[in-house]
Task: inverse folding
């Protein structure tokens, strides 16, 4: 990629929009995953009894079980949310950038 | 095998996402299991057929390393899941749930949460910048020779450590399941793996992974359904029966993750380690573009998450159906240690459960799947190791890029054979050794050397060759040193009274050391070359974001 092309893409408003939107989205989702996971792990480290609380008085199932399963499902949903937006909206923007490069 | 060793092994065994080290210590040879052998032969026959088909389509280095880049996102997601759902994940985590209940789920979650981060941060730029190995990306704008040498060292170290764990685990597992002699089992795994990889390259390896993932998911699904059908598909009933047998504490965190430092350090190792494993990273070059790379992670995360939920049910199923069943009781061990030990140790819980729910036939199926799992994982590992040798060391470092594709592929095949032989020799050498540390070490190296260099090369403009080489080496050295001085090697293997480094997982410290080292030696690098490397970032970043100029799929 030569200097001219680099400058051209860098100054393309579509490119700037793509990078800022996608980075922002990726960072937000990463933080969401990290916050959920570290909250879980640190709860176990500092207060293991919390997740051992029974769901109800006559139940042996603890709150930790649905929470654990929910984290697995949450991780999967996050990948779905990102993939859907990136393969749609972001790729559309990206294709516009590629088109504009092809023109000359 | 005393309880402490089982316990320790379980902890490390589960860190060993890919390790097959399912069984530790002495195992007794079991009687020949005919249905297992027939199903295993079917698998081997089928996969060798695929290898033959793949060999005819593997004509260039690109085909060999990346299956031509034409694997779909769904197929690659399945293959990644195949790489990740090792015999250790399957047997180790279900064994951990069987032994400790809830703690098994904590580990599963740790293994899973790295995947979204890989998707958001790594998959796309990796696909857009690289060709065959992650060193392509790390050395994109830096000096080829030092960066590739370091990245290849990190890759080869990770691969060999994993291979040792795999080979030893496979030998013991096969000995136990099929009644084969240890050495024969190890040689068999090594030879089959060499055949798959040298002839079929990435295409055969990918399909072996896909088939194995499908078989494993089907088998585990059947087991989970069989267990749940006993309890009217009511988790409350399953849990309450299990707690009657094993105590209420299996429903709560049980102290496997006890102090905050260990907890965070383990989390760092799992997340960044996964993102630094060469055979996982290599899988992203098998798809045609970033779009398919994203889909790969989406499907992989779904399969892996589903699999972990199944292993949790399977572990509890083993508590209610295997524990206390005289058929699976190891009476010899019980006479010495008391309690209710099961044949082959706790990690055989899922295997015994397969017998309890499906008789000899299903036991044979699950045993064959466990063997297939090992074969698939060692093939992926060996291919990644061979690529580091041929693509990074031979073609780029030694020949400085002046080598044709056919010659490079030939070197890669030779490297595969050599790695296969090394793996067989190591597997036999380490049979009686305590190998509990090797997988933890492999993970620590991946997280502390491979990952920081890769991540910063993609996102940090000021990274220079000097910073990457010195900082990456610091990460590598710190990881090795802290594992040696930690409780597993220093106390359990070397027999010292107290560990010099108190934590089992060094990643928090070694990853931090690597990042600080890379930062410091980059920002203080005022050489002319460093300036040029910083200037080259812009063009690299544009390619990583847009895929303009990226490698495409090959035509045929």
Result:
């Amino acid at each position: 990629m030569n200097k001219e092309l680099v400058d051209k893409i860098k100054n393309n408003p579509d490119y700037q929009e793509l990078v800022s939107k996608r980075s922002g989205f990726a960072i937000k989702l990463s933080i969401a995953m990290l916050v959920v996971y570290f909250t879980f792990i640190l709860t176990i480290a500092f207060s293991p009894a919390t997740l051992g609380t029974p769901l109800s008085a006559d139940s042996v199932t603890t709150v930790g079980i649905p929470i654990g399963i929910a984290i697995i499902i949450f991780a999967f949903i996050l990948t779905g949310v990102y993939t859907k937006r990136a393969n749609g909206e972001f790729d559309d923007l990206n294709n516009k950038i590629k088109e504009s490069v092809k023109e000359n | 095998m005393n309880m402490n060793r089982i316990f320790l092994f379980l902890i490390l065994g589960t860190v060993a996402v890919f390790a097959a080290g399912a069984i530790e210590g002495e195992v007794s040879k079991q009687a020949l299991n005919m249905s297992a052998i027939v199903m295993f032969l079917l698998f081997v026959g089928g996969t060798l057929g695929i290898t033959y088909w793949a060999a005819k389509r593997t004509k260039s280095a690109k085909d060999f390393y990346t299956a031509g880049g034409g694997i779909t996102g769904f197929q690659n997601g399945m293959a990644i899941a195949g790489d990740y759902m090792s015999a250790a994940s399957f047997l180790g985590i279900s064994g951990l749930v069987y032994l400790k209940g809830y703690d098994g789920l904590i580990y599963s979650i740790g293994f899973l949460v790295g995947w979204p981060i890989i998707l958001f941060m790594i998959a796309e730029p990796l696909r857009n910048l690289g060709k065959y190995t992650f060193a392509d990306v790390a050395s994109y704008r830096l000096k080829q020779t030092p960066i590739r040498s370091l990245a290849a060292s990190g890759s080869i170290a990770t691969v060999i450590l994993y291979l040792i764990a795999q080979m030893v685990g496979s030998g013991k597992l096969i000995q136990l399941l099929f009644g084969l002699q240890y050495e024969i089992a190890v040689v068999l795994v090594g030879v089959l793996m060499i055949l798959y990889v040298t002839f079929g390259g990435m295409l055969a390896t990918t399909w072996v992974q896909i088939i194995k993932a499908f078989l494993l998911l089907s088998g585990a699904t059947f087991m989970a359904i069989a267990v749940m059908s006993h309890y009217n598909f009511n988790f409350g009933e399953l849990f309450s029966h299990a707690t009657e047998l094993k105590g209420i504490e299996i429903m709560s965190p049980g102290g496997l993750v006890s102090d905050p430092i260990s907890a965070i350090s383990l989390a760092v190792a799992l997340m960044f380690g996964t993102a630094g494993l060469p055979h996982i990273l290599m899988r992203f070059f098998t798809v045609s573009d970033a779009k398919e790379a994203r889909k790969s992670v989406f499907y992989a995360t779904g399969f892996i998450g589903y699999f972990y939920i199944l292993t949790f049910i399977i572990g509890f199923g083993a508590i209610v159906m295997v524990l206390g069943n005289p058929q699976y009781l190891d009476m010899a061990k019980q006479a010495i240690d008391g309690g209710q030990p099961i044949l082959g140790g706790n990690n055989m819980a899922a295997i015994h459960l397969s017998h309890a729910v499906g008789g000899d036939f299903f036991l044979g199926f699950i045993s064959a799947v466990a063997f297939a799992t090992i074969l698939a994982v060692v093939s992926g590992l060996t291919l990644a190791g061979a690529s580091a040798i041929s693509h990074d060391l031979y073609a780029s470092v030694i020949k400085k890029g002046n080598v044709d594709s056919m010659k490079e592929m030939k070197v890669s095949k030779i490297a595969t054979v050599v790695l296969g032989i090394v793996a067989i020799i190591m597997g036999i050498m380490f049979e009686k050794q305590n190998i509990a540390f090797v997988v933890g070490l492999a993970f620590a190296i991946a997280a502390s050397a491979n990952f920081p260099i890769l991540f910063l090369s993609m996102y940090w403009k000021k990274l220079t060759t000097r910073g990457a080489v010195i900082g990456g080496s610091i990460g590598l050295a710190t990881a090795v040193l802290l594992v040696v001085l930690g409780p597993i090697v220093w106390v359990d293997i070397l027999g010292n009274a107290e560990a010099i480094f108190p934590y089992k997982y060094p990643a928090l410290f070694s990853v931090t050391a690597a990042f600080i080292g890379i930062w410091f030696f980059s920002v203080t690098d005022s050489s002319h070359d460093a300036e040029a490397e910083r200037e080259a970032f812009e063009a690299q970043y544009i390619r990583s974001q847009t895929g303009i100029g990226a490698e495409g799929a090959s035509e045929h």
